[in-house]
């Protein structure tokens, strides 16, 4: 979500729009505002304590964030990128008579449903809040056709007000490696460390690969504070499968470090139970690396099965192990996936994404203008 927000904001500013990113102050050392570039600024609003909060605690500061938001502007459009911010911004947009646009990036599902249905709600109001925002916002911007379907069917959003704006990729930062790869190398799974991302399957899959080509697995990502002990569970699993020495947890990576990690890998694994898109899959393709992904949500759109990688409608570690082995043993297949992935990624840019988003905003502003004309 952070990547999408920042890159779309930069591209919108480059188109000539004035953009402000609004977020909560989580440190007393952060200035109230910071200029990120021409026509682009980020503001840190005082809502709740000036220190990091667990994700589930943010619902308690929604009302205060809304009060701070009322003091800003005027804006032509308010675009929220999480249900917390949506619940804060929707009433302010109504009071100011401007359109409210909602994006979700992940949509929660009831805790009694399978993980394939979506992220678990981190606080009590999420399920009802997301449904309210889908129905009450002037537009919902979805990142994929899969997410658009979920907004319409599960949340009850009006399909006529759902706009699909695919993400872009920085094809200069994420570019193919020019060196030569030897041996089994390593494969990467890059994600927030929580059960929804299915990293246990990545470990099981590598364990299922024949020892003569079994790669190391690099797990990159930040541990989620809402799932204490999950990383320990993953380490235990690797030990039980006899591959503890081949699984490496390297923590969160900067964007340049992630790009370097991806381009030097043999494969990128995206075993998520649910994804609205799966941006890391597109970044892997831009890096000239084949992707093996689960057939969940938007991953079917991020990865073209049989062209830029392999999409598996199975969570059997044996199936995943065989897919990994197939690519590692067939360099020509891997190279074909790499070329096609890079070609596709080059056609998907952040400026292109911003143009589509700008068109959505413009249509909403024009409609409001027509409604106000005598």
From TrEMBL:
Residues 2-172 form the Glycosyltransferase subfamily 4-like N-terminal domain. It comes from the Bacteria. InterPro entries: Glyco_trans_1 (IPR001296), Glyco_trans_4-like_N (IPR028098). The keyword Glycosyltransferase applies. Residues 180-343 form the Glycosyl transferase family domain. Keywords: Glycosyltransferase, Transferase. This is Glycosyltransferase. The keyword Glycosyltransferase applies. GO terms for molecular function: glycosyltransferase activity.
């Amino acid at each position: 979500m952070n990547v999408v927000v920042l890159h779309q904001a930069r591209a919108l500013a480059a188109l000539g729009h004035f953009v402000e990113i609004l977020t909560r102050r989580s440190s007393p050392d952060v200035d109230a505002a910071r200029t990120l570039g021409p026509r682009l600024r980020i503001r840190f609003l005082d809502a709740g304590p000036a220190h990091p909060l667990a994700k589930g605690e943010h619902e308690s500061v929604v009302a205060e964030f809304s009060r701070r938001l009322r003091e800003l502007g005027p804006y032509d459009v308010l675009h929220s990128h999480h249900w917390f911010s949506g619940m804060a911004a929707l009433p302010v947009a109504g009071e100011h008579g401007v359109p409210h646009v909602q994006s979700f990036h992940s949509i929660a599902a009831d805790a009694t449903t399978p993980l394939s249905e979506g992220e678990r709600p981190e606080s009590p109001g999420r399920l009802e809040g997301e449904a309210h925002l889908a129905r009450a916002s002037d537009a919902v911007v979805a990142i994929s056709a899969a997410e658009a379907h979920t907004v319409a069917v599960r949340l009850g959003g009006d399909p006529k007000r759902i706009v699909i704006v695919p993400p872009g990729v920085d094809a200069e930062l994420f570019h193919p490696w020019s060196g030569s790869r030897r041996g089994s190398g390593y494969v990467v799974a890059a994600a927030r460390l929580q059960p929804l991302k299915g990293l246990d399957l990545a470990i099981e899959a590598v364990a299922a690969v024949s020892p003569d080509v079994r790669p190391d697995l690099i797990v990159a990502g930040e541990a989620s504070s809402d799932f204490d002990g999950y990383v320990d569970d993953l380490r235990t699993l690797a030990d039980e499968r006899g591959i503890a020495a081949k699984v490496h947890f390297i923590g969160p990576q900067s964007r340049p470090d992630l790009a370097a990690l991806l381009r030097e890998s043999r494969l990128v694994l995206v075993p998520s139970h649910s994804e609205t898109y799966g941006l890391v899959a597109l970044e892997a393709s831009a890096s000239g690396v084949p992707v093996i992904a689960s057939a969940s949500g938007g991953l079917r759109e991020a990865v073209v099965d049989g062209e830029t990688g392999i999409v598996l409608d199975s969570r059997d570690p044996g199936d995943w192990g065989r897919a990994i082995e197939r690519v590692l043993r067939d360099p020509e297949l891997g190279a074909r996936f790499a070329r096609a992935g890079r070609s596709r990624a080059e056609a998907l840019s952040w400026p292109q994404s911003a143009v589509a988003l700008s068109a959505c905003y413009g249509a909403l502003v024009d409609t409001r203008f027509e409604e106000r004309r005598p």
